[in-house]
Write a structure and sequence with these properties.
Lipoxygenase-1, mainly beta, 6% helix, 6-stranded antiparallel sheet, 25 strands
Length: 415
Amino acid sequence: MTMLKGANVPVPADSVRVEVGWRAGPGVPDVDASALLLASSGRVRSDDDLVFYNQAHHASGAVRHEGKRAAGGAVTDTLAVDLVRVEPAVERIVVAASADGGDFGRVPGLCVRVLDAGGGAELARFDSRDATVETAFVLGELYRRQGAWKFRAVGQGYGSGLAGLATDFGITVDEPRTQAAPAAASRPPAPAAAPSPPSVPQPVRLSKVTLTKEAPTVSLAKQGGTSGAMRVNLDWRTRRQPGGWGSRLSRALAPQAGLDLDLCALYELTDGTKGVVQALGNAFGALHRPPYVHLDGDDRTGAVETGENLTINLDHKERIRRILIFVTIYEGARSFAGLNATVTLTPQHGAPVGFSLDECDLPSTVCALALITNHGGDLVVRRESRFLVPERGTSPQRTVDQAYGWGMRWTPGRK
């Protein structure tokens, strides 16, 4: 039963999943869930207390943004909250939603649900039915009361989007600058022995790019991603037993099921050099020399909360002809069916680029995630989300090679 605005209920669980849900359709804006951890002042202690698509993990480990899932016309964006790990200085966790590309008056079925992360039972639900021109909403909040946790339905709208909502709670937002910096010649020369200025915390960047089937490509240069390191992250969840979705597979289920997913990359440099970066065969690549692609490590236990990561050195983008990022199932499963995965490419400079994988209905053990190609010095990212089925006796790597015409020679390998 849905709660009335202002009502509250106990939360008898140590950890919960908070799902912001809505119905998708033509002209419906995308919706993003976020959480703000507030002190007794009613404001955040620092910008680190905002958890959202660009800052998915709180430093305490208590709150994580787990991403979106679409099924049957309904979409959910999920936050995982480990109430036991919430720091004593945090009194409230505000659950917010922001609309990307329109207002909430065009978003049908907006609701927030609090689920027991252990058994999946619904503990609270609030349906927002009176939205009009708002572009952000505080849907509810988890709060402490006499040593226990409760949930309150709020339903407060904002017309200034996530930036306005976050600012009201004390977040410093990185706003676009419209005034050009003065020319270098007009600046007085700095003293020869001037001390280095103290480091200043960087404001929170709210910009993002979401790739879809309808708009699958983006230019990194147009988003400011022209130099520095770019991290490529694969984060995933999977179905539990029938009746619900579980917590992130890499944290909870993989140690039990023995599932090992490997993030990999095929590369081709402008001098014709081709190769693969992967854990198999310890081919981890290199960041500051060819191929300028490096695999951070191999998570074989599923205990790493940040998924698997590749890093690409954009300072050498002129040496890169193309990179195909893909994922394979090394062991523990026969297919990606039931996987709910999110791919995020985060340049050191510029807006993050992200997308979710499509539902897999094939006996696939390898999926092409994204293709990065060099177009006149600009790297263009294309969403692939393409599940492939290896023929009998053909490795997943060779299958990807054949599908994209890489033309490499393959030999058996092991970790």
